[in-house]
Specification:
alpha/beta; Arc Repressor Mutant, subunit A; about 240 residues; binds calcium ion; 5-stranded parallel beta sheet; 5-stranded antiparallel beta sheet
Length: about 240
């Protein structure tokens, strides 16, 4: 997260909508850059990682989902999906791929700005200041998590990369181990819609990457009606 104005890349092929998004975001002090094809966005994100990408799913050159996937592999950053297809499967799939949130077209510019701010707040809240300056590597169970690199290192040295969303969530869990964290705490928001599945989807992705059996998780435990808990001793260095 840059200290000054966050940079947001907007991938949208319809010039009218792109202009609306960029105007709204600029009014609130965000630095906004526009890309009209998936390739253009991915090339731009490679040069320097933005704070957030807004990705339209319906694109002329490639599937927006593919863009989200490649972003997570190459330049992990926060992702907000923009979709005209009011289709639950797409949205859930987007979250599965590591997107942070989605918004359905047509949308109110104010709602878009609110979502963007809420995503960025989540990342800021999990910023390294909470564990003090340089301590960005956590050891827990058989794992080492490097939050700067968004990587998990297994006991045998094998590395797995996490999306920005997953890294943020794991950081929150690792900062308060052995305590029940509510969905609100994990999302960094108040009044989370009880039907919002984004936390559950992200938890299940994290479990998979931590080889934690979803039927009988040992590391990230579900506390029914309350939230989740990371059962491990954690040391930050
Ligand atoms: Ca489009």
């Amino acid at each position: 997260m840059s200290a000054s104005n966050p940079t947001i890349l907007v991938l949208e092929d319809e010039p009218e909508i792109a202009r609306l998004i960029c105007t709204s975001l600029s009014e609130y002090g965000f630095r906004c850059e526009h890309a009209s094809t998936g390739r253009q966005l991915l090339d731009r994100a490679k040069r320097s990682t933005p704070d957030l990408c807004i990705v339209d799913l319906g694109l002329p050159d490639m599937d927006g989902m593919q863009v989200v996937r490649e972003l997570q592999d190459g330049s992990p950053c926060a992702v907000l999906i923009l979709t005209g297809r009011n289709d639950l499967t797409d949205r859930v799939l987007g979250l599965e791929l590591g997107a942070d949130d989605y918004i359905v077209k047509p949308f109110e510019p104010r709602e878009l700005v609110a979502r963007v701010r809420s995503i960025l707040r989540r990342y800021q809240r999990a910023a390294p200041t909470e564990v003090g300056g340089e301590r960005t590597v956590a050891r827990f169970a058989e794992w080492i998590f490097d939050r700067g690199q968004h990587t998990l290192i297994a006991a045998d040295g094998r590395q797995t990369s996490l999306s920005a969303a997953e890294a943020g969530l794991l950081t929150t869990l690792l900062l308060k181990p052995n305590r029940i964290l509510s969905r609100e705490q994990l999302l960094g928001e108040r009044d989370v819609d009880p039907f919002d599945r984004s936390i559950d989807v992200r938890i299940s992705r994290l479990r998979r990457k931590l080889q934690d059996d979803p039927q009988e998780p040992k590391l990230i435990k579900t506390v029914y009606g309350a939230g989740y808990l990371l059962a491990a001793q954690v040391s930050w260095e």
